[in-house]
Amino acid sequence: MPFNKVAIIGLGLLGGSIGLAVRERLPSLETVGFDADSDVRSRARELGLCGSVAEDAAIAVQDADLVILCVPVGAMRTAAEAIAPALSPGAVVSDVGSSKERVARVLAETLPDHTIIPAHPVAGTERSGPDAGFASLFAGRWCILTPPAHADEAKVGALMQFWRALGSTVEVMDAAHHDMVLAVTSHIPHLVAYTIVGTASDLEEVTRSEVIKYSAGGFRDFTRIAASDPTMWRDVFLHNRDAVLEMMDRFLRDLGSMRNAIDAGDGEAMFDLFTRTRAIRRGILEQGQDDARPDFGRADHTQETSE
Ligand SMILES: NC(=O)C1=CN([C@@H]2O[C@H](COP(=O)(O)OP(=O)(O)OC[C@H]3O[C@@H](n4cnc5c(N)ncnc54)[C@H](O)[C@@H]3O)[C@@H](O)[C@H]2O)C=CC1
Ligand SMILES: O=C(O)C(=O)Cc1ccc(O)cc1
C-alpha cells in the first residue's frame, strides 16, 4: 500500500465505512478521523471507526499522506480550509462527494499547492451518521476517480490501489461527464423519490397512516430512497444544478410521452418501454451489481434500514 496514514474528515456513513474497511482490509494503514460534530466524534471513538479521533481537523491531517473529505459537498470548502495549514506537502487530498465538477474546483481553489484527486465511491444507503457505516460498503462497487488533466499519475495510481484494496472497481472519468451520468442514474432518481413521497403525503385523502398501510409495493422502495439525508441531497442538487436540469428536462419529456401514451390508450408504447427497462434490470443483476446494503435480499430489509 503506497500510503501509511489516512485522515478521514467527516465520520458519517462514508467516513465511518472507510475507517472500518481499512481496519479490516488494510490493517497496517493508520487511520485518524475528525468530525465537526463532537457527538459524532464521541460515537466514532465508541464504535472504533478509526485508530484515533482527533479534536481538531488540522491535528487529524498531520503527517497523513492521504486525506479523504467525507462531508456533504456543500461543506467541502470549510473542511478544506480547516486542514490547509497542517497538510503534508506531498499528501494526496481526495473526497467522496456525490457530484464532482464543483467540488474539484472548490478544492483546487482552497488547496492550490496540493495534489487533489476527487473520487466518488458509487456505494451508499439511505442511512447517515457514524452508526450507519459498515466495512463491506465498497466491496463490488464502482469508485469513480476524476483526476484533473495534469494530475500526478503515480498518485492517481496510488489512490486506485487504495480503493481496489477496499474492494471497489475503479474507473477514471472526466468530472463533467461524471456529473451528467450520475445526474440521471442517481440524482434524478432521488428527486423522483422525494417528490412522489411528498406528493402522496400532501394528498388530503391519503393520510399518513394510509401511506404507510398501503406501502407494500413500489412506493415502499421510494420511501427508502426518500429517507436519505436532507443536507447531503440538498447540497447535491445545489452543486450539480446544470447537469440535473439538463437530464431532468429529458426525463420530463419522456414522462410526458408516457402521459400521452396513457391518455391515448397506446398500450404498445407502454409495453415497449416496460420490456426495455425489464431487460436493463436483468442485465444489472447478471453483472452482480445488486444492492449494497448488507441485509439486502431479506423481504423486510426496508424495515431494518429505516431510521
Ligand atoms: N450517503 C451515501 O449513500 C453516499 C454519500 N456520498 C457522499 O459522501 C459524503 C458524505 O456523506 P455521508 O457519509 O452519507 O454523510 P453523513 O451525514 O453520514 O456524514 C457526514 C459527516 O460530515 C460531518 N461534517 C459536516 N461538515 C463538516 C466539516 N466541515 N468538517 C468535518 N466534518 C463535517 C457531519 O457532522 C457528518 O458527521 C457526501 O459528500 C455525499 O455526497 C457518496 C456516496 C454515497
Ligand atoms: O441508497 C441508495 O440507493 C443509493 O443510491 C446510495 C447512494 C447515494 C449517493 C451516492 O452518491 C451513491 C450512492
Automatic annotation (TrEMBL):
Q: In which pathway does it act?
A: Amino-acid biosynthesis; L-tyrosine biosynthesis; (4-hydroxyphenyl)pyruvate from prephenate (NAD(+) route): step 1/1
Q: What is its EC number?
A: 1.3.1.12
Q: Which reaction does it catalyse?
A: prephenate + NAD(+) = 3-(4-hydroxyphenyl)pyruvate + CO2 + NADH
Return the Basic and acidic residues bias intervals.
290-307
Task: Report the InterPro entries cross-referenced here.
Answer: 6-PGluconate_DH-like_C_sf, NAD(P)-bd_dom_sf, PDH_C, PDH_N, Preph/Arog_dehydrog, Prephen_DH
* Superkingdom of origin organism: Bacteria
Residue numbers spanned by region Disordered: 285-307
Keywords, comma-separated and alphabetical? Amino-acid biosynthesis, Aromatic amino acid biosynthesis, NAD, Oxidoreductase, Tyrosine biosynthesis
GO BP annotation list: tyrosine biosynthetic process
Matching Pfam families: PDH_C, PDH_N
Q: What is this protein called?
A: prephenate dehydrogenase
Q: What is the lineage of its organism?
A: Bacteria, Pseudomonadati, Pseudomonadota, Alphaproteobacteria, Sphingomonadales
